[in-house]
Amino acid sequence: MIGVELRKLLGRPRTWVSIGLLCLLPVVVAVFLAVTGIAPRPGQGPTLLSAVLGNGALFPAAALGIVLPFFLPIAVAVQAGESVAGEAQSGTLRYLLVRPVGRTRLLVAKLVSVLAYTLLAVLSVAATGYLAGISLLGNSGQVTTTTLSGTTLTPADLAWRTGVMVLYIGWSMVGVASVALFLSTLTDSPLAAALGGLAVLVSSTVLVTLDAAGAVRDYLPTRYWLAWVDLFRDPVPWGDVTAGVLVQTGYVVVLLGAAWANFSTRDVTS
Amino acid sequence: MTAREHDPARRPAPTTGGGADGDAVVVTRGLTKRYGRVTAVDDLDLRVAAGDRYGFLGPNGSGKTTTVRMLLGLVHATSGEIEVLGRRVPRHAKDVLPEVGALVEGPGAYPHLSARANLRLLDAAGPARGGDPLAPDTGSRRTRRSRIEAALEQVGLTDVGRRPVRAYSLGMRQRLGLAAALLRGPRLLVLDEPTNGLDPRGIAEIRDLLLDLNRRGTAVFLSSHLLAEVELFCTRVGVLHRGRLVAQDDLDALRGPTGRTLVRVDDVDAATRVLGLPAARTTDDGLLVLDDLPVPEATAALVRGGVAVLEAAPERRTLEQSVLGLTS
Ligand SMILES: Nc1ncnc2c1ncn2[C@@H]1O[C@H](COP(=O)(O)OP(=O)(O)O)[C@@H](O)[C@H]1O
Ligand SMILES: [Mg+2]
Questions:
Q1: How many domains would you assign to chain B?
Q2: Which interval of the chain is the signal sequence (chain A) (predicted)?
Q3: Residues B306 and B268 in one domain
C-alpha cells in the first residue's frame, strides 16, 4: 500500500508543479540579489538574506527561510489535507477500503506519502537554493563561511548545520502535516482540511506575537519554527531547537493518535 | 413484526435460495443503523443464498446504500449481526472482502489517470489473497495485467486507450466501476444502483453480463429503486421501506396469482351481459375478470350465449402492484 501511495504521489502532476513553484521563489530572490547587489539590512527582510550576498553557500538556508513562513506550510497542508479527504471526494476511499485495505494501513501509507512529499519539498528547495546561490551569488572563492556570530565555518561545518536545518524544518512541517491529516480524517473535503490546518498555523503565528498569550506561547506549534537560524550561530545555542523538536513531537503524537482513533472507527459515508 | 413473519401462509416452498444457512452468502440478523435521530436501517433480517440474484428494492432514502455499506464494513451497525460468505463482518471483513466485488453509490476513480492505471493502482492496493492461506491468490501481481484486460473486456471498455477518466461519460465511469468490482473474479457481487447513468442498451449489456456471471456461480446482490430492473434480473427480492424489510421472497411468489381469472373474448359487452355483473367485470384493456366464478362454467355459459372465448389465464400481480401494496 505504501508503494501504491508513493506511486500516486509521484505520478501526480500537481506534486511536481507545487514543488517547482516552491523552488521558484528563492531563485527569483537570488536573481534580484545578484542583479542589484542590494541586500536587506541585517534584522530586516527574510532571515539570513543579509548574510548571503557575499556567500552563496548560505543560500540554501536562506531559501528555506524564504519559503518557510508561507509557502512550505501551505504546500504541506494541502498535501496532507488531501490525503484521506481527497480519496473521499474522488469516491475512491470506499473502494480502497473494500479492496480491502486496512484502515490503519491506509493511514500509515498516507502519512508516509506526506512525509515523502515534505522531504522532497524541503530537499528540493535546499538543492535549488544551493545551485542558485553558488551560480548567481558565487562563493567568492572563500573556503570558509561566516556565521551570524561573525566566526568562520569550514565547509564541513556548514554541511552538517545545513543538514540539521533541513531535518528541523522537515520535522516542523510534519507537525503541519499532522494537523491537516487529522482534519482530513474528519471531513470529506480536502479544501476544508487544508484550510483548517492553515487556520491553526495562522492563529498560532498571531498568538506567538501576542504578549497577552504569553502563558501558552511556548506550547504553540509555530513558536520555535525559526529556531533553526540558531544553527548558524557559533556556538550553536541548542535550547530553542530542542524545545522546538519537543513541541512538534508532542503535536505529531497527539494529532496522529487522534487521526488514527477517528479514522479507524468512523463510518465511511463518502 | 419482522420481515421473516411477513404473511408466511402465502410463501411457497423456495425454488431458488432459501436453503440451509450453510450456503448463504449474506445473512443479517436484526441489523439496525441509526444516524443520530434518523433510523436509516431498522431491524433487517436479510438472507441471500449462493447462486441467488437478489434484488434489494426500495425507494430513494429507504436505506439500501446504508445496508450495502454495512455489509462491506464501511459503516458500523448500531446493532445486529452481519455474515458475509459465512464470516462475521466487520470483524472478519479483511478475510471475506477479497472475494467480494462491490459498487457502492456510483464509481470512484482518479480523474487524471486512465482506466487501466486506475485498475492497476486499485489492484496493487489490496492483498494478493484473502485471510485464509488456502484462498486463491486472485489478486496476484503476475496475473494483474491479464485480469485488468479481461475485466475491461467484460464491461466493454477495451478501446478507451490512455484517455484519463476525467474525459469519460457517466456511463463509461459506471462500467469502469463494474470492471473494478470484477477484477478478482468475486464469489459475491454487491452492486448498489449499478445501472445509474447507463443508456438502455448499456443496461441490457450489463444485465447480460451479470446473468452470465451468475450462471457461472457468482451470487449477485443488486440494490435498486427501479422495479423494472429488479423484475427483469432477479430471482429473489427483498423490499425495503423506510429502513424496514417489508417482504423477502422469490420473485415468482411476489408476482403470484391473485386467484382471479382473465378471459379474452371477442365481444366484451355481450359477455358481461351473459354473465351479469358483478360476476364479470372488464379491465381497461378489454379483458373479462372472473372473481369467483369457476372458469369451466363461465366459459360454457359464454359459449352458450354466443360469445367466443379466445383465451383464459389466471391473473398475476405485477411486482409493482405487490410492492405498492406492501409499502403504502
Ligand atoms: N451519513 C448520514 N448521516 C445522516 N443520515 C444519513 C446518512 N446517510 C444516510 N442517511 C439517511 O439514512 C436514510 C437512508 O439513506 P440511504 O441508505 O442512502 O438510502 P437509499 O440508498 O435507499 O436511497 C435516509 O433517510 C438518509 O437521509
Ligand atoms: Mg442509495
A1: 2
A2: none
A3: yes
d(CA B10, CA B173): 42
Give A153's pLDDT tier (boundaries 50, 70, 90): confident
Task: Tell which of B253, B280, B302 closes a domain.
Answer: B253
| Residue A270, in any domain of the structure | no
Q: Is B62 in the pocket of ligand 1 (CB under 6 A)?
A: yes
User: Hey, which of B65, B245, B323 would you mutate to test ligand 1's pocket, going by the most ligand atoms within 8 Å of its Cβ?
Assistant: B65
Identify the bridge partners of residue B261 per DSSP, sorted by sequence position: B290, B314
Tell me, what DSSP letter sits at residue B195?
T
Tell me if A92 and B109 make a contact (CB, 8 A cut-off).
yes
Q: Which residues of B touch A268 (CB under 8 A)?
A: 69, 74-75
d(CA B299, CA B295): 6
Indicate whether B18 pLDDT > 50: no
Question: Going by C-beta distance under 8 Å and a sequence separation of 6 or more, which residues neighbour residue B148?
Answer: B116, B119, B120, B123, B179, B183
pLDDT band for position B312 (50/70/90)? confident
Domain end residue (candidates: B253, B272, B295): B253
Place of cell 520555535: A224
Length of chain A: 270
The ipTM estimated for the assembled molecules is 0.85
